[in-house]
Amino acid sequence: MTKLHDDSTQSHFETDVSELYQQRKSRHRATASMKRQTLQQAKTSSNWTSLVGKFQLVAIAASTMLLFSLVALQSYEIEHLQPKLEYTSVFIHSFDDTTDQDYSQIKTMYQQHTEDFVQRKALLASHHQKSAVLSQFAHGWELKTCDQELVKISKELVDTLTGMDLINSSLKTGDNVQIAFNAKGLIVGIEPAKNVQQCT
Amino acid sequence: MSITLAIKTLFSASHSNEWLIGRYAQTGEKKVLELLYDNCADDLYHYLSTQSDPHMAKDICQKTWLKVIEKPHLYQNSGRFSAWLFTIARNALIDEYRKTNRWQPLPDEPRQSLSVVFDYHDSIADKFDKVLLSLPFEQREAFCLQQEGFGLQEIADITHSGVETAKSRIRYAKQALKAQLEKYHD
C-alpha cells in the first residue's frame, strides 16, 4: 500500500486497486450449485423446446396429411359423384286459330290507343292555346287562335260560365282573351288577355 | 480426466464467447453452454453481489442465464457476449430493485460525506471491500465494469448512460477509493 501513498504514481494505484479487486472476486465466486441449477434449467428448457419442436413437426405432418386427404376426396367426388343430368324435351308447338283472334284483338286495342293518343294530343295542343281573339255571335262565341283554329262555344255554355262568374261579362268582339282549360280540356274560364296577342 | 480437461481447455481457448453463443443458439448443445457459463459466471456473480447481496445476486444470475438459455438468438453480433450478458443482468437487477422499491438512483457527484469506519484488525482487502461497498450504486457499478475489462462505451451501454457520465462515475469512484485507502494507510 506504500505505492498508494504517492500521488504521483497513479498507475501504481490503478494496479493496486485492480489487484484488490481481483482478490475480492476470488472470494466471491459462483457456486457449484448455481452452475448445476443453471445447467438443469438448460436441460429442462431443452427438453421443453424439443417437445415443442416435436409437436410442431407432428402438427405440420398431420395438417399436410389432412390437406392431401381433402384434395384426394375432392378429386374423387369430382370424378365419381357428379350429379346425373336429367333432360326434359320441349317441343315447339304450332300456331293455332286463336292466334288470329288474338291478333285482331291486339289490332283493335292498338287502334283504340292510337285514337286516344290523337285525342289527347289534340287536347294537349288546345290546352296550350290559351290566347285567342273573341268573336261574338247570336248562337254563341267563337275564339280564333293564332294557328287559325276556331274554338266554338255554345250560347248555353257562355251563359253557364257567365252564371258561374267564369266569364268576364264585359268582353266584346275583337277582344284578346285568355281561355282557361281544366285537366280534361274543358273550358273553365275566359278572361281578357293581359298582353295583346301577337300572332306571327 | 486430464485428457478431457485438455480437450475442454483447447476447445474453450479456440473459440470466443461470441462464437460459443452463436453455436449454442444454433445447436442448443449443453456442452457449449457449460463453456460459456465457465467463462462468464464468476464475473457476473461478482458484479451482481457487489451491486446487491449474495441472495439477490444468485437469484438474478439464475434469471440472466435462463434468458440466455431460452433466447440465445437475441444476442446480436454487434458487441461482446459478456456486455450483452451484463446488460441482461443489470436490467434484471434494476427491475428487482424497482419491484421491491429499493431503487434510488443517486446523483453522480462524489459523495462528500463518504466516511468508512475501519476496524483495527481489518486487512487491506477488508478495507477495500468496505470502501467499495460504501460507494454510490452507479459509481460502484462503473468501477466494477471497468475492472471487468469493459470499455467506456460498453459501460455506457450497459448502464444506459452517456460515455462522459460513465467516465465521471469511474473517476469519482477511484477518487473515493484512493482517499479512503490513503486515510487508512495514514
Describe the structure.
- The complex is a heterodimer of chains A (200) and B (186).
- Helices cover 54% and strands 14% of the residues of chain A.
- Chain A is α+β, with helices and mostly antiparallel strands.
- In chain A, strands 3-2-1-4-5 form a five-stranded antiparallel sheet.
- In chain A, β2 and β3 form a beta hairpin.
- By secondary structure, chain B is mainly α.
- Chain B has two domains: 103 residues, Rna Polymerase Sigma Factor, Chain: A (Orthogonal Bundle); 80 residues, Arc Repressor Mutant, subunit A (Orthogonal Bundle).
- Chain B is 72% helix and 0% strand.
- Chain B is built from nine helices and no strands.
- The longest helix of chain B is centred in the C-terminal third of the chain and has 23 residues.
- The radius of gyration of chain B is 18 Å and the shape is elongated.
- Chain B starts with a helix and ends with a helix.
- The model of chain B has no long low-confidence stretch (mean pLDDT 85).
- Classes of the chains: A alpha+beta (200), B mainly alpha (186).
- The interface between A and B is medium-sized, with 29 and 35 residues.
